[in-house]
């Protein structure tokens, strides 16, 4: 069965430092991978996705993620964190072809960026 | 450039009542998805619809829950005879096309509280 693991419930980072939010996945085929961010009492905002091609994907607000097939990982990164990046981050996967458009989400990682 | 619209944003129901949640997709989008987020958990897929068709309802509870996306008007998620366990945030997403690589854009959610 497809699954997504976000091993850290919370990540704490000082403003200006680099940040990493970890994600690993388990699918039988080639995955489509996504990152979303959720601010309090808001919906999810799309950050970036990996479909095929270059393993390093650049997205919104300066975020990027690297697809690593051998480690089955898709970690989210940003070179310099902002206090406004504090939010809940979700990694998600779709497993084609049988996965249709069903996003399988991780449990989420809360990012706290301190001034 | 309106995004995905959901209403109401908050809904309070007593046990045994019916809840109707509405979702208007982004302009030009004809694919709608419903997800449920229980407190402190990630989102779980419920159903995927196109206009007048249910494509995948594998995440829908077998009883009391139904969804539709008519030719005209918003998509409706209907919960009959609500119970306290139905209390959650319900998110709708839409996409332009049916390809699994298509980005799903989320609405702000409806927070259902069952008393």
List keywords for this structure.
heterodimer, A: 115 residues, mainly beta, 6-stranded mixed β-sheet, 4-stranded antiparallel β-sheet, 12 strands, 50% strand, B: 115 residues, 7-stranded mixed β-sheet, 11 strands, globular
Structural overview:
The complex is a heterodimer of chains A (115) and B (115). In chain A, strands 2, 5, 6, 10, 11 and 12 form a 6-stranded mixed beta sheet that branches. Chain A is globular and about 45 Å long. Chain A is mainly beta. In chain A, a hairpin with a 5-residue loop joins strand 7 and strand 8. Chain A has strands at residues 3-5, 10-14, 19-21, 24-26, 32-38, 44-50, 56-58, 64-68, 73-78, 87-94, 104-105, 109-114. Chain B has 115 residues and is mainly beta. Helix content of chain B is 0%, strand content 49%. In chain B, strand 5 (43-50) and strand 6 (53-56) form a beta hairpin. The chains are: A mainly beta (115), B mainly beta (115). At the A-B interface, strand 5, strand 6 and strand 11 of A face strand 4, strand 5, strand 9 and strand 10 of B.
């Amino acid at each position: 069965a497809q699954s997504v693991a976000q091993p850290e419930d919370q990540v704490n980072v000082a403003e200006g430092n680099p940040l990493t939010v970890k994600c690993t996945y388990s699918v039988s085929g080639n995955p489509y991978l996504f990152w979303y961010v959720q601010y309090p009492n808001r919906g999810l905002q799309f950050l970036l996705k990996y479909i095929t091609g270059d393993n390093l994907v650049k997205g919104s607000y300066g975020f990027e993620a690297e697809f690593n097939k051998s480690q089955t990982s898709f970690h989210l990164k940003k070179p310099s964190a902002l206090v406004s990046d504090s939010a809940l981050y979700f990694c998600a996967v779709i497993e084609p072809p049988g996965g249709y458009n069903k996003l399988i989400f991780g449990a989420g990682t809360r990012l706290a960026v301190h001034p | 450039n309106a995004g995905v619209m959901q209403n109401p944003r908050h809904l309070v129901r007593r046990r045994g009542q019916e809840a109707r949640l509405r979702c208007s997709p982004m302009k030009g989008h004809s694919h709608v998805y419903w997800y449920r987020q229980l407190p402190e958990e990630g989102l779980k897929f419920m159903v995927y619809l196109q206009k007048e068709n249910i494509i995948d309802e594998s995440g829908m509870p077998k009883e009391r829950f139904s969804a539709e996306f008519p030719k005209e008007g918003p998509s409706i998620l209907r919960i009959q005879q609500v119970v306290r366990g139905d209390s959650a945030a319900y998110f709708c997403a839409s996409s332009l096309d049916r390809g699994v690589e298509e980005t799903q854009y989320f609405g702000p959610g409806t927070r259902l509280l069952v008393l």
